[in-house]
Design a protein that fits this description.
By secondary structure, this protein is α+β, with helices and mostly antiparallel strands. It has one helix spanning 32-46, and strands spanning 6-11, 14-19, 27-29, 49-53, 59-64. It has one domain (6-64). It is built from one helix and five strands. It has a five-stranded mixed sheet with strand order 3-2-1-4-5, with helices on one face. A hairpin with a 7-residue loop joins strand 2 (14-19) and strand 3 (27-29). The radius of gyration is 12 Å and the shape is globular. Pfam families: DUF2188. Residues 50-74 are annotated as: Disordered.
C-alpha cells in the first residue's frame, strides 16, 4: 500500500476524505469533525500526512503521522 496524504475537503454533501491524487472521495461525511477522524485514522495507519482544508478550500491545518520529513528544529 502506498502512503497517500489524506485531505479533508469541502464537498457538496458535507465533507470528503480524499487520498492525494484521487479524483474520487474515500468517504463523504456530514460533519468536518467526522471526516477528520477518519482521515486521521487512515493517515496514522499509512504513516502519512493529514491536511484539513477550510470551507474556502485552502489548507488550514496539517498533521504528520509516522516519520516527519521536515521535523522541527530545536
Amino acid at each position: 500500500m502506498t502512503k497517500k496524504n489524506q485531505h479533508v475537503v469541502p464537498h457538496k454533501d458535507g465533507w470528503a476524505v480524499k487520498g492525494a491524487g484521487n479524483e474520487k472521495a474515500t468517504a463523504i461525511h456530514q460533519t468536518q469533525q467526522s471526516a477528520i477522524t477518519q482521515a486521521r485514522d487512515i493517515a496514522r495507519n499509512q504513516g502519512s500526512e493529514m491536511l484539513i482544508h477550510g470551507t474556502n478550500g485552502r489548507i488550514r491545518e496539517r498533521n504528520t503521522y509516522g516519520k516527519d520529513p521536515y521535523p522541527p528544529e530545536g
